[in-house]
Amino acid sequence: MQQFINHHIIKPLKRQYRTRFKYRISEQKKTYGKIIERVRTAGRCRVLFIASSLPMWRYQQLVRLMIADGRYDVRIAIIPFKAFTSAERERDASQLMEHFRRSGIPAERIADFARLKQDFAPDMIVYPQPYDSSYEDEAANWLHNRDCLIVHTPYSVPLSELEWYINIPMHNLAWKFYVASEIHAEVSRRIADNRGENAVVIGEPHADEFKEALTADPWKQICDGKRRKRLIWAPHFTIVSYNMFDRPDFNWSYKIMQELALKHKDTLQIAFKPHPRLKSELYKHAQWGPERTEEFYRFWAEGETTQLETGDFVDLFKSSDAMVHNCGSFTAEYLFTGKPVGYITRNLDGIKADMNDFGRACQEAHYTLDSEETLSRFIEQTVINGDDPMKEEREATLQRILYRPQEGSVAEAMMRDLNDSLFS
Question: How many Å apart are CA 254 and CA 235, to the nearest integer?
Fold first, then answer.
């Protein structure tokens, strides 16, 4: 996998880094210095947040703090990712609009980014992803907006030391690169071209939300008087073994999950929480295609004791009893619940090979599910019957690496750093 990533990801990005950038790191820092002086003189900072997908939105508390501070003018632009289908983009936009409406935070769907930038004249733009061409409207892509302070927090918790996690152009040229732990900052200092000088440790933003009370119960209500455990199944979008992520375990586990959902319908509810790209990948797959994919999704959406979840996951996690998955970020994020979690893989050594110390610690707090037998046993013994021998190990991992000792919340740590950098 490392050879594949070096050839198809790292080398092209490095060529792009050398040939497309007009600014080197030092020149970009000079630009940022001028913007900061302008902000200090004005005593105000105009901040534009780009929201593209509700599960990747990590700035709710920061937005509230900025609005309350009074020195920030905040706008939220909803711009879905171009990699998704048109239907998926409409879904993401609708979910975000409804989320911000319920939250009482103004947001708008943007079709003409250049006009927005001209009208609002942001000093700072906060991006949900670090990639160069995330949007159909080229004007929205970060490479064209380096006349603003570029801020980025990873949309998932990086578990790997692979360069594309930590050393692509935005990681080096962003004004602020907020990371979850000192382990991530150390990796950035060791691997990144800028030696991690813009990496600031603030903690994992979702930690704030997991400490809050449940805002809504997203689980399907079944009025038959039976008590059921709530299990989340969250498969990654990888369905081919040569993919750069090398997590093709959906291919052998999807049928087992369907069978277990039917077998345990009296004692178990299952929420199918696929990666947002899984449907589009299945659409393209020769053995799946649109018709079979839609039938599969209907099985989960319409079953009496099953449901399809494509939006935010925090309330879903908090109100669940357990999860099985093979996703990257969830390997860390579900540990905040303290509940049993199993990782579906037949290649655990390969999964762990590229991980940093943070990722390995999170992975080792999981049950490993590598067969129909281990998957079934986890659901029947651990989820349904409550036999959970890894409980103490999960709690120790949570306290050791996920909770960062600090005053206040993660959003408050980010806000303090911004205020110190802009107004001190």
Answer: 9
Residue 95 Cα to chain centre, angstroms? 16
Q: Give the whole-angstrom CA distance, residue 355 versus residue 418.
A: 30
Q: pLDDT under 50 in the chain at which residues?
A: 1-2, 4, 18-23, 243
What type of residue sits at position 301? A
Q: Which backbone phi and psi does 74 adopt, to 5 degrees?
A: -115, 135
Two tokens at 378?
A: 């986890």
Predicted local distance difference test score (pLDDT) of residue 408: 78
Per-residue pLDDT, 114: 96
| CB contact set of 8 (below 8 Å; sequence gap of 6+) | 244
Tokens of 167: 């050393």
- CA-wise closest residue to 317 among 208, 218, 205, 180: 218
Residue 202 contacts residue 418 (beta carbons within 8 Å): no
* Alpha helix stretches (DSSP H) within 108-230: 113-120, 163-166, 169-173, 182-191, 206-210
Whole-angstrom distance, CA of residue 292 vs CA of residue 269: 23
Per-residue model confidence (pLDDT) at position 277: 86
Name the pTM for this structure: 0.77
Give the separation between CA 25 and CA 332, rounded to whole angstroms.
Answer: 31
Q: What is the pLDDT of residue 245?
A: 53
Long-range pairs for 320-323: beta carbons < 8 A, 24 or more residues apart: 320/230, 320/231, 320/232, 320/271, 321/229, 321/230, 321/231, 321/383, 322/229, 322/230, 322/231, 322/232, 322/382, 322/383, 323/231, 323/232, 323/233, 323/234
DSSP-assigned states of every residue in 240-271: STTSTT--TTHHHHHHHHHHHHHHTTTTEEEE
What is the per-residue pLDDT across 5-21, written as a single tens digit (0 to 9) for each? 555 555 555 555 544 44
Give me the sheet containing 268-272, strands edge to edge: 306-308, 268-272, 229-234, 322-325, 341-344, 367-369
Round to whole Å and give the CA distance between 107 and 78. 7
**Contact at 8 Å (CB) between 323 and 232?**
yes
E-state strands within 128-206: 149-152, 176-179, 199-201
CA distance to 90, 180, 205, per residue, from 405 (Å) = 40, 12, 14
